[in-house]
Amino acid sequence: MSRLDVRTFFFEKSDFPEPAPVIHRSSYGLSKSYEIGRCSAVQTGQCVRLQYRSARSEVTERVFDPHGVVYHAGLWYTIGYCHLRQGQRLFRLDRIQQVEVTSETFSSPVNFDALEAVQRALASVPRVWQIEVWLETTLEEVLRQTRFPKALFEEADNGVILRVDVEDLPWMARFLAGLGLPLIIHHPPELRTVLRHYALTLANYAERTEA
User: Fold this and answer.
1) Rounded to whole angstroms, what are the CA distances from 135 to 139, 146, 177, 193?
2) Longest dimension (CA), the chain
3) pTM above 0.90, yes or no
């Protein structure tokens, strides 16, 4: 399913003002956190099968019982019971590659507060940086140079935009430097600082003449 299809699956049309926003760029309640009460998948009480792309771009398939859907800090999340991990898991809707309903049913926990559960889950995970960098190259060339999947790249402005989530900014700086390509960092601004420091470190190494 596309991102729009995933949104349509999880929400009824009445959940959104017209025109309905795209999940990962929603301006609806941008400064708020709240729970959507009329989530289609939650109300039917049916398990779903997801293909999910992690922050490390690993795609896994799992059966999932969606207990709630929440908008928080600019992103949509669903939280519930993951049959693969046998425990509660949190998923970003914009990372769901495919979703389909199964014949299995479930019952949500009594008095389950999805917003509180999402906030608690987010507080327990390491900081993940959302990277967006424009590269002066072609899609074919960047795919040849990297092992990132094609889905993370978009051709734009006579180059390619890379969008990826990472936990380690120094690693990302080293990766970009290793490409040897002209680039523009759209965000986060912290990556510019880290890349600049890495470049200075390399320059200092280049000046060394003895151990």
Assistant:
1) 10, 13, 11, 18
2) 70
3) no
* Helices 189-207/169-179 angle, 10° precision: 60
- What is the tens place of the pLDDT at every residue in 112-130? 888 888 888 877 776 678 8
Grouping H, G, I as helix, E, B as strand and the rest as coil, residue 107 is coil
Element counts in the chain: helices (H) and strands (E):
6, 10
Question: CA-to-CA distance for 101 and 164, rounded, in angstroms?
Answer: 28
Chain position carrying tokens 């006579």: 158
Each residue's pLDDT tens digit, 55-111: 777 889 999 999 988 887 677 888 999 999 999 999 988 888 888 888 898 988 888
What is the DSSP secondary-structure string of 10-26?
HB-GGGSPSSPPPGGG-
Helix (H) or strand (E) holding 63: strand 59-72
